[in-house]
């Protein structure tokens, strides 16, 4: 028989190499919001706008422009940077509608590889936090970067941010290195720098000429406030940085499978931004040619109408508040049980995920004996908790911690 032309492709082992948080059998472990009934949630405002779109006979399925729906792009960047952003007023903000936050990271990475710090400079170091969302590494590697490094972020003993480690990695990084920063709700640790710590980070990055590439996948979801969750990005802009910000609307609109993202580009001046966008247009053309419209229409319509915008903020707050409630309920149960250790980190962390501090053996016990699924790192999706299973989960954590060292 003739040799198979695809025979060289090895089968990837099940689980994480597929690029998602997988259960041992390879099925996805949903990094998504769930209601107190454990169900996916279609935001009421999304349902309403979907019906408006379906009833609007002026809409059709023509191709969108390569860079995407103009009203989506402008409104998406506006919520990242704020209504009164000096950069928007000075006309030095551009955007590219992308396929989710992942697509925005990828288009940004492809651009940087081609045109940042020289021409096709694949040697520019790219720094990713330890730990981080695992796709950060792969996206930048696949874009051609050869020197992906890690920076200190999580202090396991303290169960908090390792600020000194982080700042010292920045001090040592070569000039013009790229740093991927989680805008809010750091995945997987749920631990963000405070505003004062962000100021220290920005000061070092400015002095050392490091490039901030923000990943904003959870705006509104972390604190319930869009403005609070965008504080870091806006501060960096106010400090005069040129930066990229990959925005995802998967979580805060619950539009996971519609692939709605935006890459916000803040440049030195209008001319710079136009040149960057013209190159990004070329990259998009050979990547997905032009983006899909449904999700972008939903987001654009919602953001453009003051009334729908308010409804959306209410929906986002519903999700954020449920997560915050589950955090405080879990912590108080563990404290009431007298579970060894401190549990304040559960309520201090924000966003969808929590680093419980359980070690791999304790995690194995949770999975095998209790059928509670969490990552080997001890990361749980807070949305898996409901009023019905809180007691069971707390008791199981208690058992894991007391029985297994
Ligand atoms: C930190 C981070 N960045 C990016 C993404 C990707 O978002 P999207 O599904 O919009 O591509 C995620 C999703 O889990 C994430 O956690």
From TrEMBL:
Write down the SUPFAM superfamilies for this protein, in alphabetical order.
PLP-dependent transferases
Q: Name one GO biological process term.
A: malate-aspartate shuttle
User: Which key words are in the record?
Assistant: Amino-acid biosynthesis, Aminotransferase, Cytoplasm, Pyridoxal phosphate, Transferase
**Tagged with keyword Repressor:** no
**Record region (Disordered):** 1-34
Cofactor or coenzyme needed: pyridoxal 5'-phosphate
Question: Source organism's superkingdom?
Answer: Eukaryota
Catalytic activity line of the entry:
L-cysteine + 2-oxoglutarate = 2-oxo-3-sulfanylpropanoate + L-glutamate; L-aspartate + 2-oxoglutarate = oxaloacetate + L-glutamate; 3-sulfino-L-alanine + 2-oxoglutarate = 3-sulfinopyruvate + L-glutamate; (2S)-2-aminobutanoate + 2-oxoglutarate = 2-oxobutanoate + L-glutamate
Q: Give the misc comment.
A: In eukaryotes there are cytoplasmic, mitochondrial and chloroplastic isozymes.
Q: How does it assemble?
A: Homodimer.
> What is the name of the protein in this document?
Aspartate aminotransferase
Q: Which gene encodes it?
A: GOT1
